[in-house]
Q: What sequence folds into this?
């Protein structure tokens, strides 16, 4: 049996795991860090299947602060992640995000807007007429206003992942192609991991950054995380609409959203109550869009009645069924086992702040942004932290 020894092991080499590895090694390049990734092609990775959006439009202070830091990091990302002459281009399109406000969501949207402004975010409260100025094809159905985050936008998920991964490797991180069979535990302390095939890796610190597979990993040590691997799909459509400029992504109160990719191309999606729960279902279902989303889309953007479906894709959300927010920090009952899980679709945009925070916890450094509100002890204490009552995106 082959046994290796590392200081810190990440289970999952997606954007969360790579960001943590980068921040660890940026702080101390003497560390021996391993990232265990079962799919080095990232074909099914949630990181690469993300829409690549970032926004400050949250209602919870810490979620807003994570996005503020993410936006700051993106300004410097290409320079900080440069390796030799290779400089990542994230293609960040800051076209803003437009959230539609209806009567039912007005009070919470206003509350979130006020907090965002207090924290220095460039967010505007819009009248229905101003909403239509930003998105002329929307018919204002049920709209009483909107919020527009001017610095929000979309980017290349692959470039962010590759940037963090390449930089972490340049600093000394080692990637291990394998799948974790179980966590190794001794006297309520993490002792390492065992991979399928018989290889063992010993370590005093393991970070669960396994995304949709997080609960499966944790169960091998008797830890039940409220994380459900939920299939979500995105549909790509071609329309007769050809705006002169790139439109902002538009998000409706139901959870439906539409992102303009340029010319007449848009991507559309929405979470639904019956989204399949599975670890291996990545099939994109054209009928699901036709039967469940197209009608709603036409109601709010009538011109979408005449469109061509050109494709789509499906990926897995790590849905935190406890409160839909991230689970960050050391599991109280297993010393050395850290969690960076349950992002419920927000992991890509929160990876920068999470990478820094988890590294600071592990290295016992001064905390730059206190995210202890997301500590896993809230699960044991049954104290959920909700974003708000109505926002479900």
A:
């Amino acid at each position: 049996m082959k046994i290796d020894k590392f200081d810190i092991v990440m289970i999952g080499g997606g954007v969360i795991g790579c960001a943590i590895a980068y921040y660890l090694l940026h702080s101390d390049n003497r560390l021996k860090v391993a990232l265990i990734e079962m799919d080095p092609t990232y074909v099914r990775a949630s990181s690469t299947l993300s829409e690549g959006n970032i926004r400050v439009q949250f209602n919870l202070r810490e979620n807003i602060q994570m996005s503020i830091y993410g936006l700051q990091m993106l300004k410097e990302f290409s320079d900080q992640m440069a390796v030799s002459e290779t400089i990542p281009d994230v293609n960040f399109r800051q076209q803003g995000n437009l959230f539609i406000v209806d009567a039912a969501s007005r009070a919470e949207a206003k509350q979130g807007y006020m907090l965002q402004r207090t924290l220095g975010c460039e967010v505007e409260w819009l009248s229905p007429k101003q909403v239509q100025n930003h998105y002329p094809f929307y018919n204002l159905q049920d709209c009483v206003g909107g919020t527009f985050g001017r610095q929000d936008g979309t980017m290349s998920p692959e470039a962010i992942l590759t940037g963090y991964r390449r930089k972490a490797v340049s600093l000394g991180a080692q990637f291990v192609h394998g799948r974790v069979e179980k966590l190794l535990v001794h006297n309520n302390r993490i002792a390492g991991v065992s991979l399928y095939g018989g290889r063992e890796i010993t370590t005093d610190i393991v970070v669960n950054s396994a995304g949709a597979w997080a609960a499966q990993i944790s169960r091998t040590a008797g830890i039940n995380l409220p994380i459900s691997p939920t299939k979500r799909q995105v549909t790509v459509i071609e329309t007769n609409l050809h705006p002169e400029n790139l439109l902002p992504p538009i998000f409706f109160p139901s959870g439906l959203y539409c992102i303009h990719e340029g010319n007449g191309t848009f991507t559309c999606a929405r979470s639904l109550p019956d989204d399949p729960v599975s670890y291996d279902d990545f099939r994109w279902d054209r009928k699901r869009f036709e039967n469940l989303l197209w009608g709603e889309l036409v109601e709010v953007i009538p011109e979408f009645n005449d469109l061509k479906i050109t494709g789509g894709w499906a990926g897995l959300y790590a849905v935190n069924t406890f409160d839909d927010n991230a689970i960050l920090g050391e599991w109280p009952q297993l010393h050395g086992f850290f969690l960076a899980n349950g992002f419920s679709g927000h992991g890509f945009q929160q990876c920068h702040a999470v990478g820094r925070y988890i590294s600071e916890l592990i290295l016992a450094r001064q905390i730059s942004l206190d995210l202890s509100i997301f500590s896993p002890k809230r699960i044991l204490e049954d104290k959920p932290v909700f974003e708000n009552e109505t926002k479900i995106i």
Observations:
- DSSP finds nine helices and 20 strands in the chain.
